[in-house]
Specification:
3 helices; single chain; alpha+beta; 111 residues; binds zinc ion; three-stranded antiparallel β-sheet; 5 strands
């Protein structure tokens, strides 16, 4: 697995974890609380937490190429920052392999 693929798969795994965190929060009716999520950066060792409102999170998840990462946890060779917030950045995967991995692993693609 090359670097692009490794980063892409790491990010896909953390995205799945965050989807489950959101599900659990929904199950407990914590819909007005911010979601305590895990940084979706490509570093497998990173366990930083980021706090997003449900609206912020849903906006990112609406595009399979978008990921939420802790501020500065950006791999500029595979993604670019599209939004900067006080505690986290939103990145979009670059065209080609990074975007393809993000799209084929999208937990919301319905497959
Ligand atoms: Zn990170």
């Amino acid at each position: 697995m090359n670097r692009e693929e490794r980063i892409g798969m790491n990010e896909a795994v953390f995205r799945d974890v965050n989807e489950r965190i959101e599900d659990v929060a929904s199950a407990f009716n914590m819909t007005t609380e911010p979601l305590d999520l895990i940084c979706e950066c490509g570093d497998a060792a990173c366990v930083d937490r980021i706090s997003l409102t449900r609206d912020e999170y849903e906006k990112i998840r609406a595009d399979p190429r978008f990921f939420a990462v802790a501020s500065g946890h950006v791999a500029p060779d595979v993604e670019q920052v599209v939004e900067t917030h006080s505690r986290y950045d939103v990145v979009r995967k670059l065209k080609g392999v990074p975007a393809e991995i993000a799209q084929t692993t999208d937990p919301r693609s319905g497959s």
